[in-house]
């Protein structure tokens, strides 16, 4: 079975990051002209002006890859659109999904892995243009669920969304007219984790994985990001030393805010800090469930 799966049913938390921070938004006219079946043409795609404005804003005063922000944006946009087009056959195949009808991506499937590989070159370009951010950060955040994001952003120097690439695509609409582009965000997450791994391997920098309640399996940390922290026994030992898991305790049952009355590991809002991912998941859910 092949075809175009709708992506609107897919929760951001099962794949991409929730999107809130970029300030430049497509106009209603631009948004209305993008449909699920729209071809991704770099020159005519209605989101091209928005993308260029965002790049200009994020790289203001800088010369990414030795180019002006405008020139860098034009080149990057073409590469992004080409990658989306190249990934389309894989993303249209039911074998890339755990539930094709609902649009639930299987992030460990060979087809999804192939789809995100199409973005490898352009994501590497963004990371290189943002290398100073990775070099100066002492702690790196990964997260699941909105409260996990709040906690990660409060206790780390850098998360995916605060990298320059993340800031550009945060709250950016799907190029194909769905709710989000899982192949793009999967690639960005992998690229971010790979860059973090390089920084952490030979330094004393730390990784903080912040987990909110009711996190399901198949999430992007388990399926993609954590895979960057492997290798030889020596490498694995270093990564294990660097990684700490935190439970993001919610302020109320439906709140994304953390409960500031809790503090574990010196992190306000954390109800657990330790080496057990399962404990972090369980405690976050238990605390949230206890809310009336």
What is the end-to-end distance?
44 Å
Fraction of residues in helices?
40-55%
The secondary structure category is: alpha/beta
Tell me what portion of residues adopts beta-strand conformation: 5-15%
Basic shape? globular
Number of helices: 12
Report the sheet with the most strands, covering strand number, pairing sense and barrel closure: 4 strands, mixed
**H/E element order:** HHHEEHHHEHHHEHHEEEEH
Number of strands: 8
Radius of gyration: 19 Å
Overview of this protein structure:
The chain is α/β, with parallel strands linked by helices. Helix content is 43%, strand content 11%. The chain has helices spanning 28-32, 48-58, 69-91, 110-117, 120-129, 131-136, 146-155, 164-169, 182-201, 220-223, 233-242, 277-290, and strands at residues 97-99, 104-105, 139-144, 206-211, 243-248, 263-264, 267-268, 270-274. Strands 3-4-5-8 form a four-stranded mixed β-sheet. A two-stranded antiparallel ribbon has the order 1-2. A two-stranded antiparallel sheet has the order 6-7. The longest helix has 23 residues, at 69-91. The model is unreliable at 1-23 and 28-33 (pLDDT under 50).
Features:
single chain, alpha/beta, 4-stranded mixed beta sheet, 8 strands, 43% helix, disordered N terminus
Care to give the gist of this entry?
Helix content is 43%, strand content 11%. It has 292 residues and is α/β, with parallel strands linked by helices.
Summarize the topology.
Elements: H1 28-32, H2 48-58, H3 69-91, E1 97-99, E2 104-105, H4 110-117, H5 120-129, H6 131-136, E3 139-144, H7 146-155, H8 164-169, H9 182-201, E4 206-211, H10 220-223, H11 233-242, E5 243-248, E6 263-264, E7 267-268, E8 270-274, H12 277-290
Parallel strand pairs: 3-4, 4-5
Antiparallel strand pairs: 1-2, 5-8, 6-7
